[in-house]
Write a structure and sequence with these properties.
199 residues, mainly alpha, Tetracycline Repressor, domain 2, 8 helices
């Protein structure tokens, strides 16, 4: 598991409030369209009050990105029941991943679509963690191929398609009849089973 310096995700209430305000601001105005003053104003504090917790707006984005990807990874990992059939594993993992993106749609939009604003080193750290989450899905797809439960032409391509579908949930949720994250999770579990030709 990729490690993050402890000070980047402070457990202090003040730092957590700053991250929450930044998520709200970034999800509405985008990283580039949001200033530290905008974030501070949401908390009725001066921009200078943020700097003991985060040295820059980019450091704040990095903390949000790493924390979000870490929680998503842990959530998906917990959903992968190694003793279950590949079909049940896939349904569980994809349902959980999609519903997480819906439940945390504001945070997910920031961590999925603002990656290019990170410095090169921070970007590499976050992408490494993303790959660990993708590897969970790939291992389930591989298991299904090995047992003959899945019929897929390309395990890597199918893995990328499934993870991309889940990630994209945060872009449109909620909309229309889709306001319940679990409904989204159930829908995407069914879609995933169809994509792999589950038997």
């Amino acid at each position: 598991m990729t490690e993050l310096p402890a000070q980047m995700i402070s457990t202090s209430k003040a730092a957590a409030r700053i991250r929450a305000a930044a998520i709200d601001a970034f999800s509405v105005g985008g990283y580039g369209g949001t200033t530290t003053r905008d974030i501070a104003a949401r908390l009725d504090m001066s921009p200078a009050a943020m700097y003991p917790h985060y040295r820059s707006k980019e450091d704040l984005l990095f903390a949000i990105s790493f924390e979000g990807h870490l929680v998503a990874h842990e959530t998906v990992a917990a959903a992968d029941r190694a003793d279950a059939s590949p079909v049940d594993r896939l349904r569980s993992v994809i349902s959980t991943f999609a519903s997480w993106q819906a439940t945390h749609h504001a945070q997910a939009r920031v961590i999925q679509y603002e990656l290019t604003a990170l410095t090169r080193d921070h970007y590499r750290t976050v992408v490494a963690l993303r790959r660990e989450t993708t590897a969970i899905v790939r291992s389930v797809v591989n298991a299904g191929v090995d047992t003959g439960d899945f019929i897929v032409p390309d395990a890597e391509g199918v893995t990328l398609a499934l993870t991309s579908l889940c990630v994209d949930v945060c872009r449109w949720f909620p909309t229309g009849d889709y306001t319940d994250p679990q409904v989204v999770g159930d829908l995407y579990a069914d879609l995933a089973a169809r994509v792999v030709g589950a038997r």
